[in-house]
Amino acid sequence: NVANLYNKSVKAYSFEVGLRYLVSDCLSFNLSVNPYIPLTDYLDDVATGNQNDSYTSILLGFSYSLYELSR
User: Fold this and answer.
1) Do residues 62 and 20 touch, judged by C-beta distance below 8 A?
2) 15 and 36 in contact (C-beta within 8 Å)?
3) When comparing pLDDT for 12 and 1, which is higher?
4) Mind listing the pLDDT tens digit for each residue in 23-33?
5) Separation CA 31–CA 28 (nearest Å)
6) Which of 31, 35, 32 lies closest to 56, judged by CA?
């Protein structure tokens, strides 16, 4: 942004949706998707087309607890 064509601070929307599958009291598998939608086309310092830039992160993992939950 040497020519000061755009503002370096922009608003963005981000949310996360996920699933957790309990295999046992101590083990679970996780899957989540997190889209990030800024209100600018200059995220990569290049404006092309008529849509704003965006990206999505996907998380796949597992959780293991060393302590079993008491009921």
Assistant:
1) no
2) no
3) 12
4) 988 899 999 99
5) 10
6) 35
Question: Does 1 score more than 70 pLDDT?
Answer: no
**52: its two tokens:** 């704003």
Query: Which residues are CB-neighbours of 26 under 8 A, at least 6 positions away?
Result: 64, 65, 66, 67, 68
> What token pair was written down for 15?
């949310």
Q: Are 37 and 53 in contact (CB under 8 A)?
A: no
d(CA 42, CA 52): 8
Which percentage of the chain shows pLDDT scores above 90?
Answer: 44
Position 47 scores a pLDDT of: 78
